[in-house]
Amino acid sequence: LSRILKEAEVSSVPSFNRFRKAQANLHQQCGVPTLKCQSAQGNIFYMNDPQTIITKDWANPLVRPHIQVYPEIPDGPITEVWHAEKWRKDMDLSLLSPMYDAGNRHFYVNEVAKMCNGQLVIPLRWVTYRGKTHADAFAVELHDNGTASVLDQESIFIQAKNLDYNYLDLQALDQLPHWCTDTVSKGYPTHMPNPDHALAQGDPLYTSSVDHFSDDVSGNHSKSWNKHWNTYMTHRNLPRQFLQQDSPNASITEQFYDFKQIVEYMHYHLSLFSNLRFGLNDADLLILPLFMYVMNRVGMQHAFAFLILEAGGICTVASAMLVVQIKTRKAMKGFTHCSAGISRTKVNVLNELQTQVALACRGVTQPIKDCQTATGMKDAYTQFWIEDLISRAREMRRTQPSQSVQEIQQELMSWVKDNDAQIYNPFLTLQGLLIIICCLDPTQDTPVEILHTILLGIVKYIWYGTHSTWSLAQKQTFALRLQATNTEANYIMQYANSLIGRQLKTVIQATIFHIHDLLWKAVGQLTALLWFPEIADLQQYLADIDVAVANVLDTFAEIDPTKIIQKIKLHLLTHLHKDILRFGPLV
């Protein structure tokens, strides 16, 4: 290129070395740094700096107007995660963006403010409705004796633009109310002013939601499988249309540990943002990142739900029941005893893992296996340390025979206490300023991922079960029928056992018109419903999903009842209703 420019007699052509230096300088100023990380297990991997990624989204004037900072009450189709229940209803109010920027003043939740009509209110949560910022708030009532009380039996809905004076204004004007005894006993005055005032130091303060997606991919260009793990971060405050544009050996939990460390570091070092200019008004802005949910393929989903998956069932209890059914040929009687268990939470999972670690410090394996079998809880990340502690306990008993088992356990537990951040799954131990990033519960916030669950799961099951029984003549007949819908039918039939998600999507979309079979019809109806990017009527949509899921499970049960227990992807279909309600469209 340099030679062409010189031949064209272009003036001031830089040398190649100068060009490379300019490139390096530009990359340093505008690029995303790649960080080298090493897990506690010694695996080395590399990560793009999430702090820089989030910062650039807020700093980009083309992106900033599209960032959603508040949950939204939908007045139309449900399309985004901020329309769904987790962000709009279920999240702790302290985890949402705490302030409303009125230009010349900032209004914070949990502190008294005055409206233009003179009414005193305490905003609880900022929401967007019909494109305008509103707030759920408690009204404040003034009594004849000069005291004030908070009417917290029912909230009111106000427009943010009608707010006139914030807490600091009222304090400066000496217009703060004198609270009655009942209000003081409930603790309202202790939250005023909101502590985030001091945190922001006059700058706007918002939260950014981050999703964590992980998958295993091959590191080879050929079809030879050489698995390694990849992890991806999504800035969930952006609309879906922005998110769907355009080789590590370390496990996902190992990679997430370093990712978590950076996010926690951002919470404790907000001054890193102080010299940055954001948005359209060239003003300083503070951002607190928080994790919304974890998206993974099914194999990782069961790991984040901390399940034991056996060849015979979802957990060892179901597996044992299945063995009895097969041996006794009393399938219906056995299946009637299958019932839903108690939902896991990260608190009871962490407590169970702590129990297993304490048992490991005694150097005996069997009690841990019994515990994992009884509860169905096992974490691959913590299991590495459990096995390490068992080995260390046994070695200490061999080299220090005078020490009792209790003394060895106590010594190892002391080490565990000093290193618990590395021992326990990082998805269970998120920390941050004001505990603001702890809205993630991996047992509840791992929604069904429809590529692996539906296309590479349910559709692949019925596709193999169908074409594997055909004769050559039947395959040729089907290929002719499939080609009628303008698909690569010959390719699909030639590589029927090696289809990828995109091709299986074509199969399920087209095959329902060529194969008159109850299972194909049931799965076809379910997949058509799931690929809805917008939900106009949520209740009707969820009712349709429930019927479609029931039809799929019923038809699978008619063909082979054992698959209901053996295949976790079929079990995950029962979670579609809850996940759509909590997170919005799954597509």
Describe the structure.
This protein has 587 residues and is an alpha+beta fold. Among the domains are: 1-30, no CATH class; 99-193, SH3 type barrels (Roll); 311-434, no CATH class; 450-583, no CATH class. It contains 26 helices and 14 strands. Strands 3, 6, 7, 8, 9, 10 and 11 form a seven-stranded mixed beta sheet that branches. A three-stranded mixed beta sheet has the order 13-12-14. A two-stranded antiparallel ribbon has the order 1-2. Keywords: Membrane, Transmembrane, Transmembrane helix.
Structural class: alpha+beta
Average pLDDT for all residues: 79
Query: Biggest sheet, in brief?
Result: 7 strands, mixed
Unreliable segments of 5+ consecutive residues: 271-280, 295-300, 309-330, 432-437
Shape, please? Answer: globular
Helical content band: 40-55%
Distance between the termini: 44 Å
How many beta-strand runs? Answer: 14
Rg from alpha-carbon coordinates:
29 Å
Measured by DSSP, the beta-strand proportion falls in 15-25%
Total of DSSP H or I helical runs spanning 4+ residues: 26
